[in-house]
Amino acid sequence: MIYPEYIQPVSLTDLWGKFPQDKKIYFLAGGTDLFNYLRDGLIDASSSCFVDISLLKQLDGITEESENIRIGALTTFSTISESGLLKKYCPDLVAAAKVLGTPQIANRATIGGNIGNASPAGDALPSLAAHFAKAEVANSKGSRLLNISDVFAGPKKTTLANGEIITAVVIPKIKVKAGFTVVGTFKKIGGRKSHIIAKASVAVFAVVKNKSVDYISVALGAVGPKIIEVRNISKILSGKKVSPELTEKCKDEIRKIASPIDDFRSTAEYRQEVICPLFEQALNEIVKD
Questions:
Q1: How far apart are CA 34 and CA 42, in angstroms?
Q2: pTM, whole model, 2 decimals?
Q3: Domain end point (choices 152, 172, 192)
Q4: What are the backbone dihedrals phi and psi of residue 168, each rounded to the nearest 5 degrees, phi first?
């Protein structure tokens, strides 16, 4: 078996100086997906370079800023699942991290890798879209912020140039009125009861008081070529009490916007059938009397 060229920088400055100019760059963090692609022949090893960024500790950790929560790209899902800061501001992301996979996977898989993999079934992605998060992307000339939805070009494809690296995720904090509470959850369905890759998924993030909704944001996974933001649900529910009638209107919006496909994991028909009940389950979980 042919293996890609391998380098392991010790800093971002070191990283820029070591890039081979004639290779396709793959950043290696947890490696939970990358080595599978190599094994399955989806990566041309002879023209590729694996850049192991696991020593770049400045890319690890969760910090609170005045208006944002910043999550370093090397932050693992086990760390995310236990973060008190994220439980407070992003409970849906914490819920997604808890069902990402086995403890062994969660201890290695990183949020930067989940974004860079660009799978519509990526567990973190609906929550990041629901929060209108931004990805911080860097190259040798500097850094820039991209809306999370603008990172993805399609299944397993990003808009990033070869050698650009995701360094962090920036999530804006939401202002909460007195008496209201930040709530959120993540639901997915797959081929078995646990440690599943999603056939369909939904993240719901909201600010509520009992069944009264001040703010809500919903995003869907694995029912389109990219993560889908269902923005009209905010128009339907914000400033209102959740009712069966309004829930049905939300489900109508999901039916309009979902565009699932047939693949080896599931059928488009099945995905279309389950996504609305999955949303309703999530909504009922976070909005209670």
A1: 9
A2: 0.93
A3: 172
A4: -165, 165
Chain segment 93-118, per-residue pLDDT in tens: 999 999 987 888 888 999 999 999 99
Are 72 and 162 contained in the same domain? Answer: yes
| 20-31 per-position pLDDT tens digit | 888 999 998 887
pLDDT on residue 289: 59
Measured in whole angstroms, the distance separating CA 116 from the mean position of its chain's CA atoms is 10
Domain co-membership, 70 together with 159: yes
- Give the tokens for residue 245: 């009638």
Distance between CA 81 and CA 128 in Å, rounded? Answer: 14
d(CA 289, CA 270): 32
CATH number for position 110: 3.30.465.10
* CB within 8 Å of 75: residues ≥ 6 apart: 60, 61, 62, 110, 111, 112
| Domain range enclosing 42 | 5-51
Output the DSSP codes for 67-93.
SEEEEETT-BHHHHHT-HHHHHH-HHH
Query: Do residues 32 and 66 both lie within one domain?
Result: no
Burial class (CB in 10 A: 0-12, 13-18, 19+), 227: buried
